[in-house]
Amino acid sequence: MTDPEQFHVYDTTLRDGAQQEGLSLSVQDKLAIASHLDELGVGFIEGGWPGAVPKDTEFFRRARTELNLKNAQLAAFGATRKAGTTAADDPQVRALLDAETPVVTLVAKSHVGHVERALRTTLDENLAMIADTVGFLVGNGRRVFVDAEHFFDGYRTNPAYALQVVRTATEAGADVVVLCDTNGGMLPDDVTATVRDVLAQTGARLGMHAHNDTGCAVANSVAAVDAGATHVQGTVNGTGERTGNADLITMVANLELKRGMTVLPDGALQEATRIAHAVSELTNIVPYSRQPYVGASAFAHKAGLHASAIKVDPDLYQHTDPAHVGNDMRLLVSDMAGRASVELKSRELGYDVSGDRELVTRVTQRVKDLEAAGYTFEAADASFELLLREEAEGRPSYFDVESWRVITESRPGGDAVSEATVKLRAGGERVVVTGEGNGPVNALDHALRTAIGALYPEIDKLELIDFRVRILDAAHGTDAVTRVLVEMTDGKTSWETVGVGANIIEASWEALVDAVTYGLLRQGGASIS
Ligand SMILES: CC(=O)SCCNC(=O)CCNC(=O)[C@H](O)C(C)(C)COP(=O)(O)OP(=O)(O)OC[C@H]1O[C@@H](n2cnc3c(N)ncnc32)[C@H](O)[C@@H]1OP(=O)(O)O
Ligand SMILES: CC(=O)C(=O)O
């Protein structure tokens, strides 16, 4: 790895990332996220604004004893002192010292319009606030980074003043002046030109803090590095105020894999997918499947022609090896599949069908026909696997359904209840059972479990965890064809199946029977119907 001092990866998930609408992190969440960030190997973790946000004050207090950081240093974030006072007398500056972090990052105004209208002070007093606050913190043993807020807009409006801010901060002892695209309106060429200029005119160590309002936060950060910045700020998964901050993971992956830099400890980038998902869990944000590098779809291939080239060499349709970021290639089978897609998907599921061209052609055609009728296999691997087995060697059969029936009754003053009757043959016996439930699918599930439970006790381990219904032809109203996807788990892993029918219960039953059949197959139960 490059000396972490020469290039700073600075994470602000816990501060600017937490400024995202809808996100509220507890102190415990923040401590857990900080541990993940440290594992990712970032050099600095900005924990929050002590003295302004009570949870952040508490975070720094607990971090002293509860965090055992191996790679990162903690940074406390805050503002320059108030106008007309001194840093030593400003309680918010004191709170930064009280956080007891090795690093303090100060936000400072660098745009004349903001000094005059938001801070409502003079340009000279703003420079004095910067010099005094940086000097006071450095004098108290802190390493100081200065976030020059609205720098790029400020540089356009009054470049001389923006440069004065950079010089003032540096002369007062700031290690890095971070140029902030606070409103996120920049494009990469603006950033490159500005960073080059500022570097040439000040010689200061520069960093970049980008927001994503033009969709260019990562590109702007890379452009800043290309122009000479040696400190980048971002948030895991790109959370942050408005449209978010530069996604730190995309940014470091680009720097390592596209620019050939080594900005994380050896092997850390391979943990990126796991850590991005762990942070999604802790922030309670559903992972974004199309997220570059680490999203579930980042290396998922759907088009048949892509699959046919990938069969020869995955690099033909991938910009990098997913293993570099701990992700996996996936093949999706759908109506856009060709034989190569079916062959590679089968291999992914553990079946080598490469020698059986006829089988592959048959399966491909059935997938296309079924998709035309409303099925979708890309989200239902288990149904695809059952179809493959059916074509290859016959469907595993644990029970043969003769018929089913379900009624739903509404009783005055109570909730509606459903009762299902299922007739089937299993283990050489004909079984007729009933089951009750709070809805028709629940009642059918109970009846099926009762019918085969004695023969296949492993069914107890199987649990339905998700049930999604989609109307395929909404123009038909209640006549429309329905698609049901169900997800089942055995506690270790989960699988999805699909059912389609004009009747919602028929579609659900088909998906349920597939899910149970696949579950029994996974449990290794002998097929004895
Ligand atoms: C670009 C960024 O994302 S920076 C990070 C922003 N983060 C946050 O704002 C989250 C935490 N913020 C807070 O808890 C509160 O807003 C506080 C404690 C900072 C300030 O709260 P309050 O004193 O109640 O005032 P309010 O939120 O209305 O802000 C206005 C005050 O901040 C001052 N101010 C505004 N921007 C800055 C700045 N960059 N540096 C210093 N002071 C500033 C204004 O001059 C005004 O001060 P005044 O009341 O003395 O005139
Ligand atoms: C400092 C900061 O968060 C910004 O300027 O966007």
From TrEMBL:
Top EC class for this record: transferase
Q: Does the keyword Cell inner membrane apply?
A: no
Q: Which InterPro entries match?
A: 2-isopropylmalate_synth_dimer (IPR013709), AIPM/Hcit_synth_CS (IPR002034), Aldolase_TIM (IPR013785), Citramal_synthase (IPR005675), LeuA/HCS_post-cat (IPR054691), LeuA_allosteric_dom_sf (IPR036230), PYR_CT (IPR000891)
Signal peptide positions (record) = none
* Domain of life the protein comes from: Bacteria
Look up keyword Amino-acid biosynthesis and say if it applies.
Answer: yes
Q: Which UniProt keywords apply?
A: Amino-acid biosynthesis, Branched-chain amino acid biosynthesis, Isoleucine biosynthesis, Transferase
All residue ranges annotated as the Pyruvate carboxyltransferase domain in the record:
7-270
A Pfam family of the record is: HMGL-like
| Pathway, per record | Amino-acid biosynthesis; L-isoleucine biosynthesis; 2-oxobutanoate from pyruvate: step 1/3
The record's Gene Ontology biological-process terms are: isoleucine biosynthetic process; L-leucine biosynthetic process
GO-annotated molecular function? (R)-citramalate synthase activity; 2-isopropylmalate synthase activity
Kindly state which reaction or reactions the protein catalyses: pyruvate + acetyl-CoA + H2O = (3R)-citramalate + CoA + H(+)
Identify the EC number(s): 2.3.3.21
Similarity comment: Belongs to the alpha-IPM synthase/homocitrate synthase family.
Supply the PANTHER family for this chain: (R)-CITRAMALATE SYNTHASE (PTHR43538:SF1), ALPHA-IPM SYNTHASE/HOMOCITRATE SYNTHASE (PTHR43538)
Stated name of the protein? Citramalate synthase
Upper lineage: Bacteria, Bacillati, Actinomycetota, Actinomycetes, Jiangellales
